[in-house]
What does this fold into?
Amino acid sequence: MRIILLGAPGSGKGTQSKYIIKDYNIIQISTGDLLREAVTKNNELGKTAKSYMEKGDLVPDHLIVDLIQFRIEKQDCSNGFILDGFPRTVLQAQELDKMLKKKKITLDAVIYLMIEESKLIKRLTGRRVCPTCKDEYHLEFKPPISGKFCAKPTCSEVELETRVDDTPEKIKHRFNIFKQQTLPLVEYYQEKTNILTKINADFSMNIVREKIQKTLSTKA
Ligand code: AMP
It folds into this structure.
């Protein structure tokens, strides 16, 4: 199964990806996670990507395309993958099409998680991330232990962090970028027969999960 999850920041792509990889025994490829890892390692990619990410801007296409190309060549992708946060521009989608064509594989589903802008601020400003295991919490919807610690026994002493791009101003900027650069992908994939499904993501995680499962059951 090869799936793309499209959606604005805060629409739940990361959370839903974690469910889908378990259901289908496939791997999650999150360009955001890969970039944050590069920033932590302070390698060449990380050094370049950092300033774009801190502003909430998109990292240049050619860097992202190289990153994905390298990642989907790995053996662990042979059973399938879910792309979370990629593609984010039409050029990235076109490059992905070329990569998949070369490998003689096709996409099974593109799922667009729809959510109103007004809901995103609340979702993202309440988000907290464990710096060790990268699990995400929400102060209201998935509260951390004692309001600030990861629930995993191995991480329990680690205080959760707020992402640098989760401030209200940056969230607004990221949403504008989403509308300008990523939303055209809905049309891009809509033109490909039967591949795009729009799901209203303004429900609890479990309800959205059920809707995704229902969609994917028609593709398997
Ligand atoms: P995310 O964790 O998906 O919200 O991504 C965090 C940040 O990483 C974004 O705001 C961008 O700066 C960068 N990023 C992630 N994926 C991409 C992509 N496909 N294209 C360009 N920049 C990206």
In short: The CA atoms of residues 57 and 186 lie 20 Å apart. Residues 168-182 form the longest helix (15 residues). The first strand starts at residue 2 and ends at 7.
